Amino acid sequence: MIKLTSKKPEDFTGDMLAYLVEEDNENLAGGADSLASKILYGIKEQGDFNGKSEETFLFYPGLIASEDKQQIKAKRILFVGLGQQDDDVAARMEQLRIAGGIIAQQAGKVKSEEVLVVLPKNIILSASEISESLTEGLLLGNYKFTEYKSEPKEKEKKKLVTTFYLNDGSLSATAVRRGMNRGKFSSEAACSARDMANHPGNAWTANDFAEYAKKITKKNRLKCKILEKAAMKKLGMGGILGVNQGSSLPPKMVILEYITNKKNPTVLLVGKGLTFDSGGISLKPAAGMEAMKYDMCGGAAVLAAMQAVGQEEPVGVNVIGIIPTTDNMSGSNALKPGDVITHYGGKTSEIINTDAEGRLILADALAYGIEMFSPEAVVDLATLTGAVIVGLGHHRTGLISNNDILVDRMIDAGDRAGEPLWRLPIGKEYRKQIDSTIADIKNTGGKSAGTITAACYLQEFVGDVPWAHLDIAGTAWDFTEKTYIPKGPSGTGVRTLLNLVRSWKTLPMDNKA
Hints:
Elements: E1 2-5, E2 16-22, H1 34-45, E3 56-59, E4 77-83, H2 89-109, E5 114-118, H3 127-141, H4 152-156, E6 163-167, H5 173-198, H6 206-219, E7 223-227, H7 229-235, H8 238-244, E8 252-258, E9 266-271, E10 273-277, H9 297-312, E11 318-328, E12 340-342, E13 348-350, H10 358-373, E14 377-382, H11 387-392, E15 397-401, H12 404-417, E16 421-423, H13 428-431, E17 441-442, H14 450-459, E18 467-471, H15 494-502
Parallel strand pairs: 1-6, 2-4, 2-5, 5-6, 9-11, 9-14, 10-11, 13-17, 14-18, 15-16
Antiparallel strand pairs: 3-4, 7-8, 8-11, 12-13, 15-18
């Protein structure tokens, strides 16, 4: 929980009072009391703290044998370094996010339940950007998943902060509250996506995706529709039906609609919801297969982003979220290498490898979503290829698109979220790799350029609609180590999508790549 408070820092009686300090700057924001200023000056004189990025100093005012200690009622003071000023807005937002994660971590170590954070001032960000970034760092850094821990001691190893308070530090309280709420919605959504991914395959199924979607429509301005297996058969969705053939559980196509005005542009978000991927008949190696419960992180990101869209209610844009969801198992009726399927819309595909299943379920969702909702732009997210990890590691999400302006917007949205993207090429020379001798296309293009040929497959189903594909296989889990990113699923993509749709403007015509 996070709240804005008008309480002065010196009157706060909670567990921890936190200040953010720029390098070589001795001024504290928020009308800091003289004792805090004296402490900061003293430790800087001693060389114990200088405000460098991620530097910390924890102090206990109650240990001071002085009347001055009455000026601070908090049990602990934490100074966190921001480093030097940076003219890049996205970089500065990330500095605050990282600082928020440090505060949450330090508070957890000393079991602080109530923490007051004084917002910094005199930096290049607006008041709303400051509070939004810091809120994200605090809440994302405070995350812990313990649902399957049976021992109370295990759950207590890291005590979570129950309430963060923000002091506006003499900034506009209205702007601070606006940014805090944005940060709260985006962080809670990202944590929801993490929760979905942390659940094992036997506890988060296609039906759970559907039920969660129904639940959030009760609280938000969203409409939900679930396409069941029978409807998929009538519609000819051979991709998702083919992947589902070896499963004992039926597939679902989860559709969420946020409509402001039919005249407004529509953005379509599609997320791969593969709740467990065994590889099917083309079985994956046993070592590490347990991580394939994370193969639904694209679907989780879209579902969680729609949750936040429903809470924030962005103006001037309609947003549609579609999650095709199933598992990929090797049952007696499973799809086989050499089989041919027919996608929604009639395009046929030769199955070369049943482990290249994500593109099959996404293809149906993309084709259906574009036909039904006529979007101005479409973005899909998927843990699609191991090849993207070979190329980019766990530090950047692979981006492939047919529209340069959409690419610029995606990169900017990712930078502001601290979720950097890297554009990869696409073209006819890559498309030739998925030519089939017996069908329209085949579902793999060989080992070379695996991430790109997978995107070529998806491009077959988007036509001329501006489209961006995010391959999050390297960032959905084991993402770059950060103070606000836990081990395991990161929730990546949620805040990037939110940044994209929050400020959506109609795309100019004729800006193909």
